[in-house]
# Entry
Amino acid sequence: MQDKKHIHLIGICGTAMASLAGLLQLKGHRVTGSDQAAYPPMSDLLRSLGIPVAEPFSEANLAPAPGLVIVGNAISRGNVELEYVLDRRIPFTSLARVLHDEFIQGHESLVVAGTHGKTTTTSMLAWICEVAARRNPALAPSFLIGGVAENFATSFQLRPGRPFIVEGDEYDTAFFDKGPKFMHYFPDALILTHVEFDHADIYRDLDAVKTAFKRLVNLVPRRGRIVAFDGSQNVSECVSHAFCNVERYGFAIDSVWRLANLRFEQGSSHWTLFNNGAKWADLTLPVAGEHNALNATAAAALAAGQGLPQDAIVEALATFRSVRRRLEVRAEIDGVAIVDDFAHHPTAIRETLRALRSAYPGRRLWAVLEPRSNTLRRNVFEHELVESLALADRIVLAGVFHSEKIPAAERLHPENVVAALTNAGRDAALCPNADAIVTNIVPRLASGDVVAILSNGGFDGIYEKLPAALRERSPKA
# Structure
């Protein structure tokens, strides 16, 4: 792709697709895209870049024909634009293939993978490299992150330095390539955060998920490094046959990188990090939650192993500003805090609620969940979902997103979740949509409450509707 061309992305509003669109624009290509529906933060990012987004999908979006079409992994046969591309044999490819061939190749590939924590850890690692590059420009990172990193106010960057940092997603690549996207990234060094059953629409069971991660581990060369969480037997199994050096991190006494004395104060995390039994540094992270301290430790460990100076790592973590839609405070109105989190799995919900407990001690915590991810829409984790949501004081569930697309025998029944929570003594309710949720909870919200909105999508505009209703209730807010 040395010649500049018109490149069209089908499904451009996915987090990775929007980021790729920005990278392609930086390389001088004319970029357009389409999607069924655009919503923040990626719609805002694309708008700021001046990249046109057509809604909804239509053959007209491909006239005149582009030189190349990139097909998002959420796009399947039957999509009108994909069918048009196939009928006319317009050249097409996948995000992962373009990302490797045009951006990663020739750089040092640093990949962050795992069921949870990928986006935040990738953002932390990129920020560490950015801070280190103030003294050594060769460390200036290029990156692609599955979310908007607040330190950069973007989800992508293209720099001349040697590292390319990428979030390694285990989801499939495209309708014509059902392998995980991360198999295209060929890591020189790898972080592996967690391995759990997820993406129930494409993985049969936990063994299938572990097989995918084992194949990723097998791509790391002997000279490479893997930084792997020590608190998961699944992670241990996945790295057990690595050909390179593996450094474990976590709370285990014999881990290479060990957290100790972890505490939370006023929304920040503080701990001492040990390396091979010796004190390495006292770390501060202005983000709450044990999971975020673990993410920061993983990023610090990989950065240290790549030769980045300790003081730059410490400074970067102390100035880290999180990621959009990860414990993001959307508004605080009349004493009610509204927090947005990209919850996609019961474990993620559990850790989000635990983090909010530490950040807002003593305050009443609401969990407002839209079962939207392909895992949460299914009943495979119904029991675990009840256990996670039970950490909140008040729980409200919306109906399952596009429930008709999930086979009845596999479909989550949120009424069962609500019934189980109620039987356990929790205040739980089921509302069909965002409007009903707002109507239900606004009269019951009081100053000091914290409302966690949990969804990996637009949630029918609740992020705007709830603050608007609170302001209407409290005109002075």
About this structure: The domain at 6-93 is CATH 3.40.50.720 (Rossmann fold). The two ends are 53 Å apart (CA to CA).
